[in-house]
Design a protein that fits this description.
This protein has 298 residues and is mainly beta. It folds into three domains: 35 residues, no CATH class; 98 residues, Immunoglobulin-like; 152 residues, Immunoglobulin-like (Sandwich). Helices cover 12% and strands 41% of the residues. The protein has three helices and 20 strands. The strands form five sheets. The protein has a five-stranded antiparallel sheet with strand order 3-2-5-6-7, with no helix packed on it. A five-stranded mixed sheet has the order 10-20-18-14-15. A hairpin with a 4-residue loop joins strand 2 and strand 3. The radius of gyration is 30 Å and the shape is elongated.
Length: 298
């Protein structure tokens, strides 16, 4: 008996090692290691605009993860879904988050992404298992605008009267819009104001906003299926512009359901809804006017 106990003590550590090795090799999942791989999911899809406008530049943003991208020239987008820890919701989060599709003059739309225990769920409503949208997403236009300017070419150091014409068209829904204007007497006289000269060469640093002194934000109620033509008259001091080419468009904001604040902050900040330089970052579909400032002597 003593001899047997001696053998057992001598080989107990060896036997334990064999048992543990067997358990690890025979289990597909064990408490020490996990061989389960988290599936990498790429959210992707196709966006179209119901007025047949080219669908590039639509902002696509995934809440909680706070990641976004713009559609390409064909209206396609792709977002790689990070690991669950990137969302801040915890690795065991189960529930729905929204993938938003945003243009400031189209109806805001979204799709639902469902998670289960921190992972892309096998059960989805709007999205296929490979991460692609089940259907093409169509955004509905609220307002179209086409801008032109006369003259379209001026020389630097000239003080030039210019006329900006904006053609506006609504569709299925009546709208309330904000714009810039100067109230004059007798009422209801209004001189429209608030024009952006966005530099094509350097939009971040060389864009200029023109406003009549005393102008303020005004409200206009637009019926559905309405077309109007607005005119803006300025004595333009070209010394405020650098030589180069510019796109021209008015400050107009549609009073509709706004996207989440964090979506706007991911683009810049909420000042994009105010007549100041960040307004040019607001994703919007327009047909801008073309304007060029030539260097003096050309």
């Amino acid at each position: 008996m003593k001899f047997l106990m001696t053998i057992c003590k001598k080989h107990s550590s060896f036997i334990s090692l064999i048992v543990i090795s067997y358990l690890l090799s025979s289990c597909t999942s064990n408490p020490f290691f996990s061989d389960e791989k988290i599936k990498t999911v790429k959210l992707k899809g196709q966006i179209e605009l119901d007025d047949k406008t080219k669908p590039d530049g639509v902002y696509v943003w995934l809440e909680c993860y706070d990641i976004g991208t713009f559609t390409d020239s064909d209206g396609k987008f792709s977002i790689t879904l990070p690991g669950p820890e990137a969302s801040g919701l915890g690795s065991d989060f189960s529930g729905e988050i929204y993938l938003y599709f945003y243009l400031a003059n189209y109806i805001l739309d979204s799709s639902v992404v469902i998670f289960s225990n921190g992972k892309f769920s096998d059960i989805q409503r709007d999205i296929k298992q490979d991460g692609s949208l089940k259907e093409v997403k169509y955004l509905s236009s609220l307002l179209q605008f086409n801008t032109s300017i006369i003259p379209s070419v001026v020389r630097l150091s000239e003080n030039v009267p210019v006329k900006v014409t904006v053609k506006l068209k609504t569709f299925h829904y009546p709208l309330q819009i904000y714009y810039r204007g100067l109230l004059i007497k007798p009422p209801p006289g209004i001189l429209k104001s608030g024009i952006v000269f966005k530099s094509i060469d350097d939009p971040e640093n060389r864009s200029v906003l023109f406003d009549l002194p005393g102008s303020k934000k005004l409200i206009y109620n637009f019926p559905s299926y309405q077309q109007e033509e607005w005119e803006y008259d300025y004595n333009l001091n070209t010394n405020e512009l650098l030589p180069g080419k510019y796109s021209i468009f008015p400050f107009i904001i549609i009073n509709q359901k706004r996207p989440p604040i964090k979506l706007i902050e991911s683009l810049g900040d909420t000042s994009m809804y105010i007549f100041q330089p960040d307004f040019i970052k607001l994703p919007m579909k327009r047909n801008d006017g073309s304007f060029e400032v030539l260097a003096a002597g050309k």
